Amino acid sequence: MPLFNKKFPPLSDFSVLMVDFHNHVLPGMDDGSPSIEESLKMLNAWVDLGYSKVITTPHVIASMYPNTKEQILGQMYHLREVIEENNIPLELEASAEYQIDFEFLDKLESGEVIPFGQQNYLLLELPWQKPAYSIADILFKVSLAGYEPILAHPERYVYLSADFKKYEKLKDRGLLFQLNMNSLTGLYGRAVQKVAEKLIKNGMVEFVGSDAHHHTHLKELKKLYRNQLFADLVYSGKLKNKSLL
């Protein structure tokens, strides 16, 4: 049975989504924006694309980007001042992209994490190499702590995409999926694009995000204006991005 019963018109912008979450606009915190100047280019690009709000999610990785809650929120407040000074019509909030590493559970138990949305969402990133622990156990502890987990870019983990049933098992545990929009433009390669398309067609995607690290990533998104599958997903009512407004 097809996921979508009708074809929708192509998008002219992303105003129907309203909110972009999962991006790296805070300057100097990770491999995203290196400066206020680049952050300004990104912010103006979101406005051009029709967004009303951005929830930024800098990496939190113990061995590479040990960003703290205090540091993230401090940079968010600073960038809010820049937004106001430049009269940019965009709302900004912050959370993080938490890699499930050897320090993650300590952060979870100590209240060091920053949830977002009314559902207390947490954006989780798996290690790029196959995890040596039980994902199911981690998800249980996240839920027990009062948070609802979202998996960042599931289409990009080779050890999951090699066996599609692994996605089904994660969905059976209630895990929400956030798809990178540029996975559909081919930015990460054809193999990732095919997995992204399959996840959409199987009704497994609840959120989409830019995962923008610089303004050129945002310009790339305009290719989706003529992507029929993406338009069908957006207008299907399955996405929860607007609930984050």
Question: What features would you highlight for this structure?
Answer:
245 residues, 9 helices, 35% helix, alpha/beta, TIM Barrel
Structural description of this entry:
The chain has 245 residues and is an alpha/beta fold. It has one domain (19-244): Alpha-Beta Barrel (TIM Barrel). It has helices at residues 36-49, 69-85, 104-110, 135-144, 158-161, 165-172, 190-201, 215-220, 228-235; strands at 19-21, 53-56, 59-60, 91-94, 97-99, 121-125, 148-152, 176-180, 207-209. Helix 1 (36-49) links the parallel strand 1 and strand 2 (53-56). The radius of gyration is 17 Å and the shape is globular.
Question: In brief, what are we looking at here?
Answer:
The protein is an alpha/beta fold.
Number of strands: 9
User: What is the CATH C level class, in words?
Assistant: Alpha Beta
**Total helix count?**
9
Tell me, briefly, the overall form.
globular
Strand residue content: 5-15%
Uncertain regions: pLDDT < 50 for 5+ in a row? none
Radius of gyration: 17 Å
CATH domain fold name:
TIM Barrel
SSE inventory with pairings:
Blueprint: E1 19-21, H1 36-49, E2 53-56, E3 59-60, H2 69-85, E4 91-94, E5 97-99, H3 104-110, E6 121-125, H4 135-144, E7 148-152, H5 158-161, H6 165-172, E8 176-180, H7 190-201, E9 207-209, H8 215-220, H9 228-235
Parallel strand pairs: 1-2, 2-4, 3-5, 5-6, 6-7, 7-8, 8-9
